Amino acid sequence: MSVSFPVSVRRLSAVAVAAASCVGAMALPASAAGPRHDAHRDQVAIGGVHSRSDRSLNGEWVEIRNNGRGDVNLSGWTLSDSQGHTYTFRRFWLDDRSTVRVHTGFGRDSSRDLYQNLRRAVWDERDTATLRDNRGRFIDATSWGYGRNDRSDDNRSHRNDRDDHHRDGGRRH
């Protein structure tokens, strides 16, 4: 004995299945967007700092490193010091497993070097460099010149302040 369904029931079932597939496909990118941001927190970091160069303002820089396997859009991200000087990344993608140096002085931007085009030094002998994404969320910070084991080389007491930053309520420096 066979049971037959009217054509309209079969059509409604097919439409319902197709609609559920579309809703599921549209929801997937939205749910995938959350974890991707968290991946930037571990993927992108401040790699080093060279402050107060006697040679030129271009000898003063902060290095941003992409440790991940995917390119990261840094457009709208900010790099700031403890006095509130802020550099905003304009249309810039950081390739996977690469670095870019943000120089204080003047120059022509490239995939390896960006320039703030400033006439005065930004990074002091004691300072903190803070990196935030385009929504102002904390990504990484590095401080130097505050410890008793300070060295006077390019990366003075380079340390990651991610935990300290969360303790102070995520305030901007």
UniProtKB/TrEMBL annotation:
Annotated region Disordered: the residues are 148-173
Record field: compositional bias (Basic and acidic residues): 148-167
LTD domain spans which residues? 24-150
Query: Which SUPFAM superfamilies would you find in this protein's record?
Result: Lamin A/C globular tail domain
The residues forming the signal peptide are: 1-32
Instruction: Cite the PROSITE patterns for this sequence.
Output: LTD
Q: Does the keyword Signal apply?
A: yes
Keyword Signal, does the record have it? yes
Identify the keywords attached in UniProt to this record, alphabetized.
Signal
* Name recorded for this polypeptide: LTD domain-containing protein
Record organism: Streptomyces brasiliensis
